[in-house]
Amino acid sequence: FRDVLAGGISTAAVSAVLNPIDVVKTRRQVGIPRTAIQEALVAWREKGAWRGLWRPGLTASLVREMLYSGCTKGLYPLARDLVSPTDAEPGLGHRAAAAALTGLGGSLCANGPDVVKVRLFAEPGRYAGFISAATEISAKEGFVSGLLLRGVSASAPRGAAIAIGEVTTYDHTKVTLKKHWPGRSETSKEPFSLHIACSLITGVVATTVAAPFDTLKS
């Protein structure tokens, strides 16, 4: 439970900081005919930085990340141990399979908040907030078909793919790099610089993998 909570809270915090970028990205993906910079400036001029860029969909983003990332990152070590041989180091295939399983499960759990988040990003003036958006979508489109399963054919594969891009890349990169990392011995702690390098590589891979799925999901 501690790993699930830590994975969810840490990613939710990052999501909160980067919410303006996510807002602009989603609006571009749903077809708004402006560049990202133009959309950011228009939102800023019309409603200000908080109401125009940071506030839309923020609650939905936090709920979504707590569910998705809590499952994906928190349950990954358990899934990796389950699919790996007990007498050998997990291979890249074992890590990818574990990440795909937890990413798929996390996406299914978080699909409802994800639907609400995209709606609030694209049409912030239509709903008063997270609860009102979820209630209206459920009433008009159905709780299951309109909320829980809307776009799941794209969001679930995306969740599995991005989990592989994030968790597997980080795990495998760290195992590979720390064997050759300067100034590290077997008895010393993993240096902070190693984690930074692995995180940068992971970010590039995960963003690249997620891009086509983001367009389909939106």
Description of the structure:
The protein is mainly α and 218 residues long. The protein is 79% helix and 0% strand. Helix 1 packs antiparallel against helix 4 (58-74). The chain is globular and about 55 Å long.
Please render the helix and strand layout as text.
Blueprint: H1 2-17, H2 19-29, H3 36-54, H4 58-74, H5 76-83, H6 92-122, H7 130-141, H8 143-148, H9 152-177, H10 192-217
Mean pLDDT: 88
The N- to C-terminal Cα distance equals 31 Å
Q: What is the helix/strand order?
A: HHHHHHHHHH
Helix-strand category = mainly alpha
Shape: globular
How many DSSP helices? Answer: 10
Describe the main β-sheet briefly: none
Q: Write down the Rg.
A: 19 Å
**Would you report the number of β strands?**
0
Poorly predicted parts: none
Helix coverage percent? over 70%
Strand fraction band?
A: under 5%
Brief sketch in words of this structure:
With 218 residues, the chain is mainly alpha-helical. The chain has ten helices and no strands.
